[in-house]
Amino acid sequence: MEFSSKLIEKAVNEISQLPGIGKRSALRLALHLLKQPKEQTRFLAEALLSMRADIKYCDNCHNISDSTTCEICANTNRNHQIVCVVEDIRDVMAIENTGQFRGVYHVLGGKISPIDGVGPSQLKISTLVEKVKTGTVSEVIFALSSTMEGDTTNFYIFKQIADCDIVVSTIARGIAVGDELEYADEVTLGRSILHRVPFDKAFKNN
Ligand SMILES: [Zn+2]
After folding, report:
1. 162 CA to middle of ligand 1, Å?
2. Domains of the chain, with CATH numbers?
3. I need a labelling partner for 97 at 20 to 30 A (CA). Which of 8, 24, 71, 167 fits?
4. Which residues form the C4-type zinc fingers (predicted)?
């Protein structure tokens, strides 16, 4: 793509680094910003900069947060003994949107995936196991997507906490195999949390 302006070219190059945005879309967005009042671009730039500079991760559940204890972990009305294990903040948001879960979360930050070079040590697994072993947890619910990576991760964690005196369950699979949680509709996802099944039984049925 030939540009008549180095300034536009630079902006387009940066915008097109974002996933799903090609050069043409990036150019469209850049031209859109030029048509808007200057403040709008400043607000956008400032929002991105402060997000990057000030975002934190919850010390307890590792969810993305504005402070070192996220709002969910700080909420005393939630059941802190029930811990739902998810991949990332999008799953937390999807489950929160169902309004069906009053426990807390543990955000792994990904799934075990040898192909992508992601091993257990790169995920927040040890802090989950520690949490369970301190005896403050009564139930762990696996809510990873039912892909091979999700199942591998569930089973890896299960092996480490299987001898603890807690309930280990998995969300009921109303969700088709391979679907990502964030795309499941709220009703289906809400139902699958309410009708969760013991993990060892779900595993044997596979
Ligand atoms: Zn938290």
Report:
1. 24
2. 6-54 (1.10.8.420), 77-205 (3.40.1360.10)
3. 167
4. 58-73
